[in-house]
What we know:
Layout: E1 7-9, E2 15-20, E3 33-39, E4 55-56, E5 58-61, E6 64-69, E7 81-91, E8 98-108
Parallel strand pairs: 1-8
Antiparallel strand pairs: 2-6, 3-4, 3-7, 5-6, 7-8
Amino acid sequence: MAIEVVSEYLNTATVRIIAYVYNDSDALTDPTGITIEIWNPAGTRQLLDDPNYPIAMTQTATGIYEYYYHKGSGVNAMTSGRWRFTVTVVDGAGASAIYSTGSGSFKVR
């Protein structure tokens, strides 16, 4: 049985999303690429104004990547509810590339 960890944030907060990438030997490793996509509670994909969408995550150490999401305040604040995200890891290039996808969510109040 999977255990769900839900993080809850205020609608003006900055959300930190962390991804850990492991190889077949369970050691942290660096992939060819890693990107993130974020959806609001209505199911609308966010960050579409970035020309490099989906967004690349930032490496903090071998196999550890993060992304900070902040929408603003007032009318620009995040909508209350459960937000979700998908992280896609690419290892290799071309026809031999291997894609792995993980997902998660966070709650905004």
